[in-house]
Amino acid sequence: AHHFGTSKLSLQRLVFVNELVDAAHDVGYEATVAHLLPVVRKLASDGEVLVRQSLVGHFGDLAGFLIQANPDSGYQKVVDDVLPVVSLLLAEKQGEVRQGAADALTTLASHLRPGERSDQVLMALISLSHNNDDEDARGTAVQLLNGLAEALGQDLCRQFVGVELIALCEDPAFR
Q1: Residues ≥6 apart with Cβ < 8 Å to 167
Q2: CA 123 – CA 81 distance, rounded (Å)
């Protein structure tokens, strides 16, 4: 898995990404954390769009494996390692990758504790909605405001989401 994940050939890296969750199950929690997660972080900035696009589609299952394999430590790995990669990919220029990251964030948010929802998810969302240089990022933020409303809960929606929606309604970009 490590050989394929670090290969110079994009097709081999793509195979690694598509087999990531199965490989994690095969090698176990400790080996996944030690050997596979570093490759995942590296592939998040892979030069091949298809590799990044495929990668974001596996974050939900990877997070599920980590949490099920070791509820406390695995949960923390999701918060410390997986969520930052998803947040990074939300700012991606390629629309397919950004949309996949948005879907992954929505999936992950439903499994997070309330503290991480406000600290990690909401802050990534607000940062995205304030991206004055990228109209597509603000469009993704609008979609996420809707998709994450249930996970964020009533209080955070009242305090932050409503304010962000009003600000985005006044956005000079038509879309």
Answers
A1: 129
A2: 16
From its phi and psi, is residue 153 left (phi > 0), alpha (psi between -120 and 50) or beta?
Answer: left
H/E stretch holding 107: helix 95-109
User: Which tokens sit at 123?
Assistant: 């802050």
pLDDT confidence tier of residue 101, bands split at 50, 70 and 90 = very high
Contact 75, 30 (CB under 8 A): no
Alpha-carbon distance of 132 to 152, in angstroms, equals 24
Contact by Cβ (8 Å): 50, 17 = no
Whether 75 and 120 have beta carbons less than 8 Å apart is answered as: no
Single out the residue of 75, 15, 79, 6 nearest to residue 46, CA to CA: 6
The secondary structure of 9-68 as a DSSP string is SHHHHHHHHHTHHHHHHHH-HHHIIIIIHHHHHHHTT-S-HHHHHHHHTTHHHHHHHHHH
Give the pLDDT confidence of 70-81 residue by residue, as tens digits: 999 999 999 999
Residue type, 167: A
Q: Which residue has the higher pLDDT, 4 or 153?
A: 4
Contact criterion met (CB below 8 Å) for 32 and 68 = no
